[in-house]
Design goal:
The chain is an alpha/beta fold and 288 residues long. The chain has helices at residues 53-56, 103-108, 144-147, 149-157, 177-183, 198-210, 223-236, and strands spanning 7-12, 27-39, 44-50, 63-67, 80-83, 86-88, 93-99, 116-123, 135-141, 161-168, 184-190, 216-220, 240-243, 259-264, 267-272, 279-281. Helix content is 20%, strand content 34%. The longest helix has 14 residues, at 223-236.
Length: 288
């Protein structure tokens, strides 16, 4: 039985002529020139690449599967999934903000300006904005902060107010503050001064609800903060979306490595984070 293709033929950004596709294809493999690649702090790097038109069509919350160079003599058999941090369509660029922690990301960190990044995407299901929402709250921690950047961009572009609550160990790890400040108000909560405690973050959420500045919740990066937003959202009938972080092998669905449990209408069901997500309804997600 014939099947529809999922990805296009490889595209070399800036060097391949765009060939017309016989049918819409949701993703492609592309070689993207690295524009810049720098350290943000002691653990995180910021990667900017020139992207193809299809890659630039990525929606907030979607991800790309990146082919990372090996950092040593061994091979890397799997790509590494990375959510998009910023979409700069006027300049034709896609940006990633990632934590350099394992062999894959240490290999990724070796790329220099002028090198090519091989990536497949855009993949997965992203965030969405309801046209009736006038103000949203995004709550992120660690690398989850990066995932919430594009939905904040989109909200700003649609005239929707944004309050970004950014949680981190200390001030050095409150990343992307300038990006979120462009979209709205930024509230930093830290471990060093105790403001990142769940009780304090709950008070902040309650205050925003009282001010009618919380039509929807978005979160990524922390299970405890996700559980808080889920509970507060349920108690106040506020819709929410969570971007799940999960180990993946193929990123395309067949391997089922990224399966998580969800609760829908009182029944448990299994879903693949890479295909059915990585963005899910907050009230259906159980956690990770």
């Amino acid at each position: 039985m014939a099947t529809e293709p999922f990805t296009s033929a490889p595209v070399m950004v800036g060097r391949s002529a765009a060939a017309p596709e016989p049918r819409p294809i949701p993703a492609e493999e592309s070689l993207c020139p690295v524009i810049s690649h720098s350290w943000v702090n002691a653990e995180y790097r910021h990667l900017v690449v020139e992207a193809s038109p299809k890659a630039l069509a990525v929606t907030p919350g979607q991800f790309f599967n990146l082919l990372c160079p090996s950092p040593d003599v061994g091979e890397l058999f799997f790509r590494r999934p990375q959510s998009v941090y910023r979409i700069d369509r006027p300049k034709g660029r896609v940006e990633f903000l990632y934590k350099c922690v394992g062999r894959g990301t240490r290999g990724l960190a070796t790329l220099k300006a002028g090198d090519d990044l091989n990536m497949v995407g855009p993949l997965g299901v992203g965030f969405h904005l309801d046209p009736t929402w006038r103000h949203i709250v995004v709550l992120g921690r660690g690398v989850g902060i990066a995932t919430l950047g594009p939905i904040s961009q989109l909200a700003k572009d649609n005239g929707v107010g944004v309050t970004a609550i950014l949680s981190a160990r200390d001030a050095d790890f409150v990343m992307a503050g300038a990006l979120f400040a462009e979209a709205g108000e930024v509230v930093s909560v830290l471990d060093t001064d105790g403001t990142s405690a769940v009780d304090n973050v709950e008070k902040i959420l309650d205050g925003l609800i009282a001010q009618k500045r919380a039509d929807a919740f978005f979160t990524c990066g922390s299970n405890r903060l996700f559980q808080l937003m889920k509970r507060v959202g349920r108690a106040n009938t506020i819709p929410g979306q969570v971007a799940m972080e999960q180990v993946m092998a193929c990123g395309l669905g067949p391997c089922y490595v990224c399966v998580r449990t969800f609760e829908v209408d009182g029944k448990k069901e299994l879903r693949r984070v890479c295909i059915e997500g990585p963005v899910f309804d907050m009230q259906e997600a159980v956690g990770w």
